[in-house]
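Re: beginner question about structure tokens

> Can someone show what the tokenized structure looks like for a real chain? I only ever see the sequence side.

Sure, here's an example I had lying around. Input first:
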Amino acid sequence: MSRARQRIDHDALFKRLLTEFGFDFIQLFFPDVAAQIQPNTLVLLDKELLGKGKRRYRKIVDLALRATLKEGQAFFIIHIEHESSATRLKVIYQRMALYALQLYDLYDLPVYPILLTSFDKPHSKLDNKFVMQAAGHTTLLFNFHVVQLNLLNWRKFMRAKNPVATALMAKMQIAPADRVKVKLECLRLLATLQLDYDRVEQIAQFIDVYLNLNHQQEVEFMAKVEKIPALRKATPIDQIVTSWERRGMRIGKLEGKREGRQEGIQKGLQEGQQMAKAETALRLANRKFGELPLSLQEQINQLSVDQLNVVLDAVLDLTTLDQLTHIVTELYASDKVKV
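And the corresponding structure tokens:
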């Protein structure tokens, strides 16, 4: 349980985003390549079909996509790397080459390899090749493409009407003083996209995890959200905002009349955030395990914000309802006072 409290499942967040918006990712960073992909032909390849008994390299790359280009079929492989150690990256370079060659050997199709990095530091530019040398000669030169988020400036993407840009801006170069501004721009972009509620919620969750504001920034953020008309229209983004930002602000204003505006907004933020996280946890759990027992729903609704963060992280990893019930029951028993 303590591990679930401390760890963010970066793999799950990124894989979910790119599985849903694979073409948008390619179009954002490799527009000339995206223009060659025939409509509706980019599909996620079942990893269980990749190894065909060769298990050694099957789990190296996070996503393998197959598409029909103007010149014929090809694979796109995307590896998402969250660590920045020199040793780790050297291994990744080598394994990307091996994985691409394995795909080529199995299917006799060309491979377009992409390395996507999510770590914040260092800012030094990564290599984009794997080189094998023997007896003073280069025997293998394997090139791949790198999308290094911490070298990208979010301002260059703030006008892109692309769901992946909207999400990944949260992991680009952001000065501490710009965090509120970037989160607002992400939501503003999200409001312009023609997406259903589930997709909006998915991107909003990604943004919220990686642009997690401190208390003072949250108060500033919510005050500014109230002044953006695009975020108050009857759209899926309005539902997301209302789930805690706008609700927190509204409660804060009411409390502010009695306790002072700042104190009221802070109290509203806490209550709104708790209610929204409980709603999100229930929605994700219901989607994964079916409708939860009423008693379990009531316990989740009474958990604190910190406890709900544990539940949200755990839902991504758990495989059975019994596991979720065990975690929620322990959390509920440890503190029955709702924040």
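Each token stands for a local structural state, so reading them left to right follows the chain. Confidence is low (pLDDT under 50) at residues 1-6, 51-60.
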